[in-house]
Each structure stands twice: as structure tokens, then as C-alpha cells.
Amino acid sequence: xxxxxxxxxxxxxxTGQSMTLLCAQDMNHEYMYWYRxxxxxxxxxxxxxxxxxxxxxxxxxxxYNVSRLxxxxxxxxxESAAPSQTSVYFCASxxxxxxxxxxxxxxxxxxxx
Amino acid sequence: xxxVEQDPGPLSVPEGxxxxxxxxYSNSAFQYFMWYRQYSRKGPELLMYTYSSGNKEDxxxxxxxxxxxxxxxxxxxxxxxxxSATYLCAMTYFSGxxxxxxxxxxxxxxxxx
Lengths: 113, 113
What we know:
The complex is a heterodimer of chains A (113) and B (113). Chain A is 0% helix and 50% strand. Chain A is mostly beta strands and 113 residues long. In chain A, strands 2, 4, 5, 6, 9, 10 and 11 form a seven-stranded mixed sheet that branches. Chain B contains no helices and eleven strands. In chain B, a hairpin with a 2-residue loop joins strand 6 (54-58) and strand 7. The interface between A and B is medium-sized, with 23 and 25 residues.
């Protein structure tokens, strides 16, 4: 039982490049989330999914796209990376029981030059 | 005005001290209140969870909620160097079809021997 895993752990991009961050969970959770964490800002929700095949925008969705083709995977895409997207990205999943079952992944550090 | 305010610290205390971490909030719709602990370069992990005013105790940790003052606290008794981490408060309310989870900016705590 690995919980929530994220790949890659660290990535450096040049402005304008694209990439996909992968999140996987093995707890059969319905809900999955992508957050970004910046100094002094706490965690901000980018996109979320309430089930396979569904996605929705969070607080800061601009510049990102997501897909949830399989229940266990939630992908975050950056089509044209910008320096403002330099951040630490966390994926989380949550079961139907609510926030007390929310688990976070270890994070992906992204640097956009 | 942020929905959840949290002093970023840093807070430095000697081993064995009682630590008090606090958050204030402005939205009366918040229903559930959580505290997460985040070690350096790791994802947040749920520490305490409560939904009512009053105190909830778990070992050396006590979570306190005062809904009338819109104020929550986390107390750590007999603090240990292993408690050194960033502590994030978080709150949820149902909006737009999902449980919206809002995080504070986090308070960095250092417990020195």
C-alpha cells in the first residue's frame, strides 16, 4: 500500500516547455486534488476531481489542465510553462468519509527558468 | 482578506515547552477544522481533526475550536525536537458541489534540545 505517489520528484523546465505531473493512489479514493504550495501562501487548489472522468477548476486553475481517465490516476499538465509556475506541487486523494481520510503525496518541485 | 489567517512564524522553543499555534478565520460556513504537520520536503499529514467547538485531545496534542470567535488552536505539550515542522491549519465547507478545503499559510516550528 503505497498511498499517494507523485512523479517526477523534481523537474527543471524552460519557459514555454510543457510537462505532465503524474499522481497515483492505491486507496480507491473517489476524490483527487492538485495543490501548489508557495512561501507564505499555504496550499492553493489548482484542480480537483470527484470521480473517474470528471474534473473541475479550483482556486488557481489558469495555465494548467488535468485529466482523470482512470480512478487511481490524476494528471496535471502545463502546456506552456511560465516562471510564475515555479512551485511545489502536491497531489492529494480523499475517500468518501471526508477530510479525515485525505492523504497527500510527497510533492513535485518544479523550477521554470 | 484571506479566509484563513495563520502567523507564519518561525516559532522557536526549548524542548519540553508548551507550544500554542493559532489560526483565525472569517467564513462562518466553515464546518470542519484540521491541523496538518509538514516536515521539510514532505507532503502534509493530517494530525488532528474536529468539527465542533471545544477541545479534542490526542496524546500530547490538543486541538481547540472557538466558533464564536472564529479561532482555532493547536497545543503541543512536552514538545520534542521531532515536533519541528511546519503546522498548517485547514478548514472545510461545502460549496460549488464539493468540500472546499482552505489552508492557512503554515507556522514553522523549531524545537531545540
